[in-house]
Amino acid sequence: MSATYSATGRRKAATARVNLTPGTGQITINQRPFEDYFGNLTLQNKVLYPLHTASQVNQFDIVIRTSGGGVSGQIGAIQLGIARALLKSDPELKGALRENGLLTRDSRKKERKKAGQPGARKRFQFSKR
Questions:
Q1: Which string of DSSP letters, residue by residue, matches 43-83?
Q2: Distances from the Cα of 59 to the Cαs of 13, 42, 54, 104, 127, in angstroms?
Q3: CA–CA gap between residue 50 and residue 47 (Å, rounded)
């Protein structure tokens, strides 16, 4: 039986559940091929960044379930999830992943709109007369 390493990553309003299984490097996001879900090569490289950092490219089959947020938030969530799962598979990778900021949860979220004003920080226009 092959081991499966699972982890969760979050960023803004996005959540990603990641399952790593030793394999050939096939990546599936929401039951779609990785290349279809993120068509842009830059976005694909961001998803693969934790694997490049750990020198583990094409060593794991990755199944990802992601929801909420937008493209940027989902990529951040996936990165964190992959990094945490890699850490479970090999604790020796902690230094390299931590050095590249892949194990730190980015806690910034959208600030809520306040009552009596049009946005989180914007004020209604001031009129002197």
A1: HHHHHHHHHHHTT-TTSEEEEEEEESS-HHHHHHHHHHHHH
A2: 30, 21, 11, 24, 63
A3: 7
pLDDT confidence tier of residue 1, bands split at 50, 70 and 90: low
Residue 96 region by backbone torsions, left for phi larger than 0, else alpha for psi between -120 and 50, else beta = alpha
Which candidate, 9, 33, 5, places its Cα nearest to that of 81?
Answer: 9
**What is the per-residue pLDDT for 56?**
87
Q: Is 75 exposed, middle or buried (CB count within 10 Å of its CB: 0-12, 13-18, 19+)?
A: buried
Cα–Cα nearest to 12, from 114, 105, 84: 105
